[in-house]
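Protocol step 6 of 9: fold each sequence in the batch and record its structure tokens directly after the sequence line. For illustration, a two-sequence batch is reproduced in full.

Sequence one:
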Amino acid sequence: MVREFSAGGVVLRRIKDAWWMAAIELPENPPEGAPDPIRRAVKRSKPVLTLPKGLIDPGEKSPETALREVCEETGVTADLITKLGDVRYFYVRSWADGARVFKIVSFYLMRYHSGRIDDIAPEMRIEVGRAKWIRVEEAPKLLAYKGEKEMAGRALEYVAAHPDL
């Protein structure tokens, strides 16, 4: 069995007395060459909203990956606050070898630093249809995947316990 390790972020931003979170919408019609999980996910009838995340590169630490992926997929930079937790799941590659993959994604809570949401490089459009801010209270209902909903819930709990964030 193949193992994959990824990292991502829950980026929070305070706008007019409310907390907002950066999320990405997968492309509606992913081009040839888009990663298989994206190609499978977009076959749904409604937009697929997820958290920014990606594979940990060789020599890279998990928090570094999370910060890099957030910037690449959303267009914003952020400051790391704390680790929220890990999401574990299995999937089967439908490309190349058809291997069963055990994946662990480490998620980190971050605070917005700078940049414009959805200001991303054209080559990222293979993975990201658009990036946008959503209210953190709505995130557990809007995100597509169970583990990511849980991470958004943990971020909401953190904000409630640390109002001076």
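Sequence two, same batch, same settings:
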Amino acid sequence: MDVKTTLFVPEAYKALLEDIRLLKSDGNNPNKMSNKQKSELWKSLQKYGWKYPIQADMNGVFADGEQRVTVCIEQGEFFAPVLRGEFTDTDRRMFRQIANKLKGKHNRELDVEDYMRIIEAGEREGLVDLLHSVGEKLPEELALKDAGEKVSVIPDTYELIVECRDESDQKAKFEELQTKGWKTRVLNL
């Protein structure tokens, strides 16, 4: 097989390589990335390659991976593994929503432990760049660790979840807590 990409492609995905310029957007992808995030995505693709393929329906309309394709085309990479599936339009949109939203909530202590291992492996700068691209910064205790101080992980916040009967009950409780000076935000689970 001729080399079609400079990015790493696992052997199992090589048969899935296709020209990604032929894929189509429905123009409704709610997932948007900043230029900094696109830059970090490109760095990740360069370092790790195609760890999972682009997902599309049989007509080549994106179900997942549109941002990766956009970044690759901007960088002059035109081939990637594409896994096509039998999606109805609704199924394709639902799959996109699932791929964009079901990410879980991070445990801060475990994140910090991961960050420490990454830093100890010599990748501090890459970690800082990644965190910056998503609007986060290196936790203060890791800056202290860099200065040789002992590190203890203390959560930044504690949260309380209040179950509401409906949207109007949610709004009333939200406004009540705000008038009492509580820092509040709406979270729908």
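Proceed to step 7 once all outputs are recorded. Observation for sequence two: The chain is about 40% helix and 10% strand.
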